[in-house]
Amino acid sequence: MNIILTADRIRERLAEIAAQIEADYAGQEVLCVGVLKGCFVVLADLIRQLELPLEVDFIAVSSYGHGQAPGEFKLLSDVRSDIAGRNVLLVEDICDTGHSLRAIMDILASRAPRSLRVCVLLDKPSRRQVCIAPDYVGFEIPDVFVVGYGLDCAERYRNLPYVAALAAPPG
Ligand code: IMP
Ligand code: MG
């Protein structure tokens, strides 16, 4: 495992992003929608740095079968909230090809939220296949498969407190 982002570095960066979010929403209420499963660590750490009034909801999608090969996008579970007229902030672990976030944004945008923004811990712009530019990006990373801090490989490694590149991709 090659650590590329330590727990300390992630904490510091999330504090900066939280300050930016606070400034941008200026005390307005926000509905944070985490994209399961990968969001759960970054969402938990981010919202504890936010003081504006907020609610939390989740949407579950699947874009990877097992391991690292991209699969078909599926909406596994929708948000429970009515998002019409609300400030929705999608929180996701990583934007890679962009297909998942594009599909989720299209679904949510069709329900007339007041605003719709995206926060990702990691961004791999070199892998992008569809047009999407997250509003808040923790770190841009090169085209390496990473795990930890919520991100998995075949459901493993989500518990690592740091982000690491897998030394050798599993067979
Ligand atoms: P996209 O639709 O290609 O942008 O892929 C988004 C999803 O793929 C993310 O939410 C992750 O679950 C997964 N993913 C993409 N890159 C990585 C990676 O390097 N490590 C772990 N999961 C990844
Ligand atoms: Mg995943």
Q: What's the helix and strand layout?
A:
Layout (H helix, E strand, L loop, with lengths): L1 E4 L1 H19 L4 E7 L3 H8 L6 E11 L5 E8 L9 E9 L3 H11 L5 E9 L12 E5 L5 E2 L15 E3 L6
Parallel strand pairs: 2-3, 2-5, 5-6, 6-7
Antiparallel strand pairs: 1-9, 3-4, 8-9
Helix pairs in contact: 1-2
The chain binds inosinic acid and magnesium ion.
Inosinic acid binds next to strand 3, strand 5, helix 3 and strand 8.
Molecular structure report:
A hairpin with a 5-residue loop joins strand 3 and strand 4. The chain has helices spanning 7-25, 40-47, 99-109; strands at 2-5, 30-36, 54-64, 70-77, 87-95, 115-123, 136-140, 146-147, 163-165. The protein has a six-stranded mixed beta sheet, sandwiched between helices. It is globular, with a radius of gyration of 15 Å. Helix 1 (7-25) crosses helix 2 (40-47). The protein has one domain (7-143): Rossmann fold (3-Layer(aba) Sandwich). It is of the alpha/beta class and 171 residues long. The protein is built from three helices and nine strands; from the N terminus they run E-H-E-H-E-E-E-H-E-E-E-E. The protein is 22% helix and 34% strand. The longest helix is centred in the N-terminal third of the chain and has 19 residues, at 7-25. It binds inosinic acid and magnesium ion.
